[in-house]
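REVIEWER CHECKLIST
Item 1: Sequence provided? yes
Item 2: Single chain? yes
Item 3: Sequence as submitted:
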Amino acid sequence: MGPKRILVHLMGGVGNQLFQYAAGLGLSQTSGASLVVDRSNVEGLCLPDLLPEGTVEVASQSERRRFGVSHGSESAALRAAMLLRRTALERSRRMTVVIESKSRGADAPEHLADRCLLIGWFINPTWFGSSWEAVAGQVLRRLAMHPAYAAATEANAAVVSFRRGDFVRWGLDLSLGYYEQALDHLRSATGPVWLVGDDQLFLAFASRWFADRGVDAGPAPVFEGSAGIADLSLLAGAQTVVMSNSTFCWWGTAAGDQAGRADRNVVYPDLSIAPERAREGTSGRWGPSHWKRMPASFGKGAG
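Item 4: Structure as written out by the authors:
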């Protein structure tokens, strides 16, 4: 066999993918194994789009099959065959498989077989705590080239993030009470207040909501190309950030911290990623020590 290889099976949005990559990178650093990512299950904006060229190796179809991972568009019979192959490799101890879900964590393996396959979310700091700064620095090198980053930096902008969409369906959107507590941070901002998010109608409502409370806030400027990368660049370049409870926002903000801006002001919601975990009393979304925790609750837009 050749040198040990870790394959990270990317899934979900780009924020989730960055946590998955950080988990793989951390394991790669401690084990000495090389790292490759599988993007076959991702549509749209993907991890390699956010990293400098040559930073990460994307798995070929033949390598994915060696790991027993099937493309989503392949036949059910082939997917079943890939699952059987993956199981056989694991039982023969030629491959280590780690499956981690949002409701049930998984520990990093102490010993790796020749191949290691990571499938899951990996949003616990035990997975990304040693590697997130390196990943955030890689992301910053990509975002700092975007005109949105320069616009936010030069204007000393405050950027407020909203995550709606499927979060509203699941009851995971933040109540407006959280944003009301952040008003003092926005009133003391020296630049414009820009709103970013995945629901333009809600952003228009939020503009009026802030205006009623004495804060002149409006949608962020529009830039050519991917709206997602532009929003990440704005979050990275902002002087003040009021975060939402999304992995997307987390990485945009974390990337901006790597610029070493001493006057940066970051507020983030102190809650768990899901209501059931809040009831269990598990830890909330982790953030660097200089980020300011602000009490928050879920509420389908209700204050």
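Item 5: Key structural point noted by reviewer: Residues 5-128 form one domain.
Item 6: Recommendation: ____
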